[in-house]
Design goal:
alpha+beta
């Protein structure tokens, strides 16, 4: 389709054998290096993620969580849930005793067991061909000898500098001389380099036991946390079967809860009930329907999605046809739903994303995150591990789907995805942006399927989301004022977003032309390459 909106004019990357799309050029280079030396897509994804754990510390790290979908050329899929659980000792009662009624983003109680390193190891054992030591070479080098701070990374660093004052260790490591590094400054993380080297030599156990684990536990305990070495040692990655729903002849696969991927499928199910292609892709008619579907779907998320062991309903019931019809019937095409009635939702019963497709057709959709920018801001001082704050999603008080409990995994916003057509891989994709991700998946798929956009245009296309508390809409600056006015006329409050909403990477597998087509997000300095 014609590009009828103002956006960076980046072209997609076409490649015949393999392709990579990440949110940082150094990570893309590391992945390509692995592929060109004979490694496969999983090897390349781990190498890229390890580099990003160093050069994008505001977004990701070994102190976070990881999810992935690996798809064989024949369409067989394997899902990996690498999210960690809350400490065994934690409970609402314990928090009440400590006077905690809300788990704040910088609280030691916001730190769940980091699951990423165990997930990386599990992925390599199941589908990889190389070990950590070989794949961490670039990451160790950047951590030990330094890397230049990229412009977008520096912008994020500046925006979130306050988070780095939570602990003296974080301030010393990330604010040299008490200041945010400038673009092009060389940053080094020698203690993180030592930890990466230890994991390279000893595997994931070098992270979850021994000195690194002791350092993490000590850092949290010093702030009032209750995580133990036993909590870390018990970390495991869960193999899961992706859940699939059709959208206009395309099978879209997401991971089941505790992630919010099922909500992307709920949104797509609702949108499929409307003839979107008759509306302008950037007009108020289309975006009104998308935002109403999002508001309803996220209401479902907040009511039901959590650790599957604690869910009141089976996730499959959330994408059942009769339930989708029930939800779609709530949407008025010309008027905002005044409120989302919770009782009607019951059925009957900053993050990095990267994707790699290799020369043998193995596809990896991979996401790794420390949740908020710089996570909890808590740095384990001896190991250089910056700890995520995924547990901030938990509720400290009883009575909610995501009430905290010992050994429970929190609801997760990070979700890799895969699209199939005629049973074979068609699109490996994902979206960055915290809570926006499920909405972003639906938006990207609709851009491609309903409006015929190529992967790069679909990524570049303007985005909207809504405030989870007030439900006011946030519109990127590229959305025309006429569209904003049309949404206001339908009852929405609309504000201009102060910055880009999310980011995305995707690789399309064009079997007819035996071609890979990769797109990356200019909003996040994304970088795609292939050969």
């Amino acid at each position: 389709m014609k590009r009828d909106f103002e956006a960076p004019g980046r072209s997609p990357v076409f490649a015949r054998q393999a392709a990579v799309a990440t949110s940082h050029p150094l990570a893309t280079s590391a992945a390509l290096e692995v592929l060109q030396s004979g490694g496969n897509a999983v090897d390349a994804a781990i190498a890229a993620s390890a580099v990003q754990a160093v050069v994008e510390p505001q977004m990701t790290g070994i102190g976070g969580d990881c999810f992935a979908i690996v798809t064989e050329p024949d369409g067989r899929m394997a899902g990996f849930n690498g999210s960690g659980a809350a400490p065994k000792a934690i409970s609402p009662e314990l928090l009440a005793e400590k006077g905690v009624d809300e788990i704040t983003p910088t609280s030691p109680h916001s730190v769940t067991v980091p699951g990423a390193v165990r997930a990386w190891e599990t992925l390599l054992k199941a589908h990889g061909s190389r070990d950590f030591k070989a794949l961490f070479k670039r990451a160790v080098d950047y951590a030990e000898n330094g890397f230049p701070v990229a412009p977008r990374v520096q912008h994020d660093w500046q925006e979130s500098a306050d988070r780095l004052t939570v602990t003296a260790a974080a301030k010393a490591a990330y604010l040299p001389g008490g200041k945010v590094p400038e673009v092009g400054d060389i940053m080094k993380f020698p203690r993180l380099a030592e930890t990466l080297r230890a994991i390279g030599d000893g595997g994931a156990d070098a992270f979850y036991t021994g000195p690194v684990a002791e350092d993490i536990v000590s850092a949290l305990k010093g702030l009032g946390g209750v995580m133990t070495k036993e909590d870390l040692a018990a970390c495991h990655t869960t193999a899961v079967s992706p859940i699939v729903r059709d959208y206009r002849g395309h099978s879209i696969a997401e991971l089941p809860p505790n992630g919010q991927g099922v909500i992307a499928l709920v949104m797509l199910g609702i949108l499929e009930k409307f003839d979107l292609e008759k509306f302008s892709p950037i007009g108020p008619e289309r975006l009104h329907l998308e935002m109403e579907a999002a508001r309803i779907a996220y209401g479902v998320r907040d009511k039901f999605v959590t650790d599957p062991g604690y869910m009141d309903v089976c996730h499959s019931s959330l994408i059942a046809e009769d339930y989708i019809e029930q939800l779609a019937a709530m949407v008025h095409p010309h008027q905002k739903l005044a409120e989302i009635p919770g009782t009607s939702l019951a059925p009957q019963t900053d993050t990095i994303y990267l994707t790699v497709v290799d020369k043998n057709g193995l596809s990896v959709s991979f996401i790794n995150s420390i949740f908020n920018a710089f996570g909890s801001g808590i740095l384990a001082p001896k190991s250089g591990v910056l700890l995520h704050n995924r547990g901030a999603v938990f509720k400290a008080k009883p009575g909610h789907a995501n009430t905290i409990a010992g050994g429970k995994r929190p609801m997760h916003t990070i979700i890799p995805a895969m699209g199939l057509k005629d049973g074979a891989p068609w699109l490996s994709f994902g979206v960055m942006g915290g809570h926006y991700q499920a909405c972003g998946h639906a938006h990207l798929i609709s851009n491609i399927v309903d409006y015929g956009m190529d992967v790069q245009m679909a990524i570049d296309f303007p985005r909207m989301f809504f405030d989870l508390d007030t439900h006011a809409l946030e519109a990127e600056k590229m959305i025309p004022q006429a569209t904003v006015d049309g949404l206001i006329a339908r009852g929405h409050e609309v504000k201009r977003a102060k910055s880009a909403i999310g980011g995305s990477q995707a690789i399309m597998i064009d079997r007819a032309r035996k071609m890979l087509i990769a797109g990356s997000d200019p909003r996040k300095d994304g970088h795609a390459a292939g050969y």
